[in-house]
Amino acid sequence: MRRSPTRREFVTLLRATGLKLWELERLRVEQVDIRRRRIVGVQGSHFPRDVPVLPEGMRLLSRLVKGRRHDERLFEQLPSGLAQDARGYRLHYARSLYRELSGGKLPSRIRSGLDLDRDSLQKVADALGTSTGLMIGYYLTSERRSFAARRDGKRRKGGSYRS
């Protein structure tokens, strides 16, 4: 009998794929391409996309798909409480994948998209199914909250933010 993945293994997959919880829940065995180190045809909010998997998740995915039918769902059920940190997992993925693709480290302070490797930035944005502007403003800078506030025009006098 096959054992269910542990909570730690689910977290590893979320951090290694950048998938949203509902995308992970819908995954089928046939979507995992071990040879190319990708999950293919992930149906996101906008369009299907291929998602590169970070090395930390490949060994686990290999074990999870071994000996299973192609049309089978990868997971029967996700553990509760994962949603709490889901954005942090996507943040880890975006930064790790950018570093891997660009061959360098992320600048500590990003003043504009010109500070970044544009090709790597686009690949990470595609993997997450988001725009490059959002990638710069939300996933790659440490000032996520102020970016969202500036975008939404919600900055109050004195520097506080409305919820």
**Biggest β-sheet: strands ordered side by side in the sheet:** 1-2-3
Estimated radius of gyration = 17 Å
Order of helices and strands: HHEEEHHHHH
Low-pLDDT residue spans: 143-163
Secondary-structure content class: mainly alpha
Helices, by number, come to: 7
- Give the oligomeric state of the chains in this entry, treating copies of one chain as homo and distinct chains as hetero: single chain
Task: Describe the protein's topology.
Elements: H1 7-17, H2 21-26, E1 32-33, E2 38-43, E3 48-52, H3 55-65, H4 86-102, H5 118-128, H6 132-139, H7 144-152
Antiparallel strand pairs: 1-2, 2-3
Q: What does the model show?
A:
By secondary structure, this protein is mainly α. It has two domains: 7-80, no CATH class; 85-151, no CATH class. It has seven helices and three strands; from the N terminus they run H-H-E-E-E-H-H-H-H-H. It has helices at residues 7-17, 21-26, 55-65, 86-102, 118-128, 132-139, 144-152, and strands spanning 32-33, 38-43, 48-52. Strands 1-2-3 form a three-stranded antiparallel sheet. Strand 1 (32-33) and strand 2 form a beta hairpin. Helix 1 packs across helix 3, helix 4 (86-102) packs antiparallel against helix 5 (118-128) and helix 5 (118-128) packs across helix 6 (132-139). The longest helix is centred in the middle third of the chain and has 17 residues, at 86-102. It is globular.
